[in-house]
Design brief:
This protein is of the alpha+beta class. The protein contains four helices and 15 strands. It is globular, with a radius of gyration of 17 Å. The structure holds calcium ion. Calcium ion is lined by residues 60-62, 80, 90, 92-93, 201-202.
């Protein structure tokens, strides 16, 4: 039985991907860019994290809402995260009031054990839930909570938000085959605040293949 399941999963790689290309905003347009031209940077050296990361598509909201899916009154607002790790002239971030949500563009992940980091600013005592959106082995969009961040009343770098166990599911059927021939998968993050309005900015992901 296991062999049959594995075979079926393999034969649908790529096909399933195309079928789900409209699953969330920006997936089809962003994946080819994100997977084919992954540029490694070390944005968090000043924070004691010398790991390689890849910029998420429009991860700093400098292209306003392009690729993002917002609900409620979530909106791009003036003012960047104060460390300017992506660009000194960056000038925008994303406001997510209570009752609204924000979902990133589709993000390319190269292998297992990836995580993401971003800058967040939430009122003390409030929280920000981080859910992973992925497509399961049945081709169904799923959402799973990865972390709940606690507000500090100021901008801070998030901890590493870890998504590995869910990507196992995602990888088993879905994939984007890059020009290099390497197979990738895609995820998106949804941010949901509780107890106060949050700001987020500068989303980076860490592809395992480069570690
Ligand atoms: Ca920004």
């Amino acid at each position: 039985v296991l062999a049959v399941v594995a075979s079926a999963a393999l034969t649908t790689v790529g096909v399933a991907w195309a079928a789900s290309a409209t699953t969330w905003s920006g997936m089809s347009t962003n994946l080819s860019k994100a997977c084919d031209r992954q540029e490694l940077v070390q944005p968090f050296g000043a924070f004691g994290d010398t790991g390689n990361y890849v910029w998420a598509p429009n991860g700093g909201l400098e292209s306003r809402t392009t690729g993002w899916a917002l609900t409620g009154s979530a909106a791009v607002v003036p003012g960047n995260e104060p460390f300017y790790v992506h660009g000194k002239t960056d000038s925008k971030s994303l406001s997510i009031p209570v009752g609204s949500t924000a979902t990133t563009p589709a993000i390319c992940f190269g292998a297992l054990y990836p995580w993401t980091r971003l800058f967040v600013n939430g009122p003390a005592g409030s929280s920000l839930r981080v859910d992973l959106k992925y497509v399961d082995t049945g081709g169904v969009l799923q959402s799973a909570t990865l972390a709940t961040l606690t507000g500090a009343g100021e901008w801070q770098l998030s901890p590493r938000i870890y998504a590995a166990s869910f990507l196992v599911s995602s990888f088993s059927k879905l994939g984007y085959v890059a020009a290099s021939g390497e197979r990738y998968s895609a995820v998106a993050y949804t941010f949901t605040p509780t107890g106060g309005a949050w700001l987020i900015d500068d989303v980076y992901v860490d592809p395992f293949k480069f570690r």
